[in-house]
C-alpha cells in the first residue's frame, strides 16, 4: 500500500526539479542546460518508482532518496538502481514492520483519495517529462547528461587508480618499517655481542690484575723481610761500634782529666808566684806615685798663690789709683766694642759675599762648589778620577752604577750626546721630564746624564719651596741667576716636582706656592742656552699644564725587569759584601777609622742570584739596594761573618714577604680612600 505523504512529496519534487524553462527547450546547449547529477539520479529513480507503481508488484515505492540509476546505461546502472531500490524497500519494510501503522485520515477533499494522496504533483511531473520528451532538443539534453555521466565514471576510475597508488605507497612504507625494525634488531644484537666481548675482556683483565696484585704483595713481603734483616744486622753493628766508641771516650776522658788536673796545679803555682811579685811591685809603685803627686800639688799651689797675689796687687793698684781705673774701664769697653763691630761687620760682609758668590739655599747637591774657590784641589782629583772612570766605562759601553732598561739606557745616552753637541754649537737646551715609581733611578740617571754631557748638575727638591713662604719667589730667582753663572752649562734637577708645580686651580695651594710656580714659569718661558731643566715626579698627571708645555723630552722609568734585577743584585753584592772590608784610597781616610771585618762569600753563584731576581718581581732599584744592605747586616750579625746561600735565601724570602705585605697595605689604604 502506497504512502500518500510519500507520493505527494514525489510530486512536489518532480514539479520543482523537472520544470524546464521554455528558452532551454527552444535553444538547448551544454551551457544552457544545467542538469546536476542529483537531478539525473532523481529522474532515474522517479521513472523506476513510477514503473514499479504501475506494475503493482511492490506495496511501497518512495522517491525521497537518491537513486544511482542512469537511463542511458542498461548494464551498469540498472543493478545499482535496483540495489538501491531493494535497500530502500527493505529499510521501509523494516521501519513499517517495527513501527505501528499510521491512523487513517479522513478525506474531506474530493480530489484526494481516502488515504490522502494528491495526484496533482505527479501529473505536473509527468507533464514536465512529456515536455522534455516532445522537445526537438531532447536528444541533445540526454547526450549532455550522458557525457556528464562518462566524466563521472572517468573520475571514479582516476580515484580508483589513486587509491591503488596509495595502497602501493602504504605497502612500501610497511616494507620500509619492517626493514628498519630488522636493522635495529641487528644493531641491538651486534651491541649485545660487543658488550659481551667487553665484559669478558674486563673479567680477564681483572683476573690478571688480581694475579699481579697477589704477586706484588708476595714480592713486597719478601723485600720487607730482607729490609728487616738488614736493619737488624745494621743495628747490631752500630751497637758494637757505639760500645767500642764509649770505651774509647771513657779512656780519653780519664786521660784528659789527669792532664787538666796537672795543668791546673801548675797554673795555680805560677799564678801564686806572679801575684806575689805583682804585689811587691804594686807597693813600690804606689809609694812612688804618692811622692810624685805630693810634689806636683805643692808646685801648683805655690803657682796659684803667686798668680792670685799678682792679680790682687794689680786690682788694689787700679782701685786705689783713679786714673788707672778710668784707663782700665775704657780699654775693656773699647775692646768689647771692637770685637762686636768686627763680628757684625764680618757677618754682613760674608752674607753679601754668600749672596753674590755662594750657592743658593735650595740646592741640596751640586757638582759645583759652594764658592768658586772652595774645593779646588778635591774637585781636581775627583775630576781626574771621574775622567778615568768615564773613559773606562766608555770603552765598556757602561753607564756608571745605573742599571736601566736597555732601551731607556740607550735613549739617555742619545740625550747625553745630543746635549753635549748642543752646548758645543751654542744651541738652546731641551727640558726633560722623568717619571716612574719611586726608587727606579731617576736622580742617578740625571747625574750620569750631566756627567756624560759635560755639564754641571744641581739637585733640589720641590718640598723645600713650600716652607719658604713669601721668600720662595726670591729664592727661585736666585737659583736661576746662580745657574746661569756656570760656564759649562748646568742641569737643574728638581726632584718631587709635583710638590710645588701642581695644578694652580687646586684649593689647597697657597698664594706663595702659586707665586713660586709663576716665577719658575717666567724663568723657563724661553729656550735657554745655559740651563737644562729636568723634572722628576711619581705623578706626572698632577703637573700644571704650563709646566708640561715646557717639557721637550719625556722619559718613563719603569720597575726593573728580571735581567736588570740580576745586574743590580750583582752590583750591590759587590758594593755591600765583596768590598765591605776593603780600605779606600787616600792619605787621611783610614787614619782615624776602624778597619771593617771582611765578609767571606761561599757558594753564592749566579744561579742563586737569578733565583733571587725571579723572586723579587716588583722591586725597585732602591728596594734591591736595601735588600743587599739587609744581607750585609745579617752577615755582620752572624758569628763567623760568612755569607752562604742559606742565609742569602732567608733574607731574600723575608724581604719579599715584607714587600708583599707593604703592597697589600698600600692597596687597602687606596681602596678605603
From TrEMBL:
A Pfam family: AAA
Membrane recorded as keyword: yes
Gene3D superfamilies found in the cross-reference section: P-loop containing nucleotide triphosphate hydrolases
Signal sequence residues: none
Localization annotation: Mitochondrion inner membrane; Mitochondrion matrix, Mitochondrion nucleoid
Domain (AAA+ ATPase) ranges: 428-561
Highest taxon listed in the record's lineage: Eukaryota
Positions with biased composition (Low complexity): 73-96
Assigned keywords, A-Z: ATP-binding, Coiled coil, Membrane, Mitochondrion, Mitochondrion inner membrane, Mitochondrion nucleoid, Nucleotide-binding
Region: Disordered, residue numbers: 73-119, 207-257
Keyword Ribosomal protein part of the UniProt annotation: no
First-listed, main subcellular location of the protein, grouped into a coarse class: mitochondrion
Gene Ontology terms describing biological process: mitochondrion organization
Name the record gives this protein: AAA+ ATPase domain-containing protein
Organism annotation: Rhododendron griersonianum
